[in-house]
Amino acid sequence: MDNSSSSVADHLHKLCSTLSSDPDGAYELAISYLSSTGDKPRGVQDEKLLCQKVHSRLASISAKDADKFDECYQKVKSSFILKQRSAVLSLLLALSESPQSPEMSTQQLFPIPQLTVPKPLAASSTGSASSKSTIGSLNWGNKASNSNQSLPSDNSNMAIANYTDQHSERQCIREAVLAATGVKLRAPAPAPRPAQALLARIAHLGFLHDRLKEFIDPASGLMPQGLMGEGLVSSIRDELTEYYRSVALLQSQACDSDGGGGTLRRMCVWAQEPLHRLTWLANIAHTAHHKKGGELASCVHRFVRHGDDRVATLARRLLTALTYPLLLMLTRWLMHGEIEDPFNEFFIESRSGVPIDRMWHDKYRVREWMVPSFMSREQASQILATGKSVVFMREACAHEPAPAAHAQSLTLLLQPPSGTEAEQEGSAWWEAPELRDAVASAHTAASQRLLTALTTHHHLLDHLVAHRRYLLLAQGDFVHHLMTLMQ
């Protein structure tokens, strides 16, 4: 079999040398044509087989998706726009069969560094492609060929590698990792100007880290007070914990002892996303200095309307965490008419020493500067009137209201959303339409119960009729009595 194939190849090469002035090029062209003659019917069969595989995989998940795929495939097939349909189908099938690790399915606050350098190909694979790799290669001479091991593995870092050897490069990487966590070095190793620029960019992470650590330190005096301030501090601590985790993975890869770690440029590329996130965290923390309650929520809410989606998502996550105590106080006020506010963070104030006959007018009022910016003044007035109605029925009318339908809506708002839902627009409690509906229904129900109690149990209409008769003095009895006395 080998002899016959070699004889065919020899005859083909002789034919090419006889018919063409470039026998090698003609031989390669003939081989390509001969090897591609049977591809057309086979490609059609492969396309049908791939289409059946994709359809069966989608049908096992959802019949609706399978029908939609058939419809899209018929449109693409009849339009003649996409020529490489088999390649696209094989790519889709390969993507569906590729395993998805559970660690990568969850959203990471900070990117996981991937600084490992790919290993060189085997000698057998490089030998087959030697003719292509030599095209355009530089002739370094004997001296360069003997020092191939000293060349850096990353061509993008060539400007730094020309000035520093492997030991100084690894030392700069260690210093960069320490600087990213805010560790101050006593005597940094001398480095060239390009490396110093990269180190300064990475060291800015340490500066932002120190600002955030100072903000969440109780001894610094910058940490916001109250329950809502603790919610913000807890969220920033979670962000720093994820940052420490990412830096630890970076250190394990960058400072690898086998020389397969990264370079300063790779670290600088990794630092782009943490630098952006820590910068905006520091900006939010700076605006939250000495703020509390609704005023603190308004400061963070300004960043939710930011044009950058990453900044808006970060601010939405922080705002949802810090306003959960506000939701608890709001729910307690609407359902029970009680204010549990040890740090004066609620936008409704309860004044002590007010007599019961002035309770409706003077005991409760709205702190205008404490109303969050995501809540309108009309909503704040409705919330105030709802709580006052509940308190008036309990204190003045001695009537404990029964739980209404809005209590279930408020209870559902107390359930914290998952990590992915908390970052989606419209899913947080403070921007959900269910909050407005629950407040409106609570206001209507409380007002109706109060009016019913006053008219039924306390005979409000009878008292008003009596006052009317007293003011009018029984429709003329006063005049009749005056005429009698005058006579």
TrEMBL record:
Residue span, Gamma tubulin complex component protein N-terminal domain: 184-455
Main location: cytoplasm
This protein's name: Gamma tubulin complex component protein N-terminal domain-containing protein
InterPro entries found in the cross-reference section: GCP (IPR007259), GCP_N (IPR041470)
Residue spans of biased composition, Low complexity class: 122-137
Sorted UniProt keywords: Cytoplasm, Cytoskeleton, Microtubule
Keyword Signal: no
One Pfam family matching this protein: GCP_N_terminal
Subcellular location: Cytoplasm, Cytoskeleton
The species this protein was found in: Plutella xylostella
UniProt entry tagged with the keyword Signal: no
Composition-biased stretches (Polar residues): 139-158
Region (Disordered): 121-158
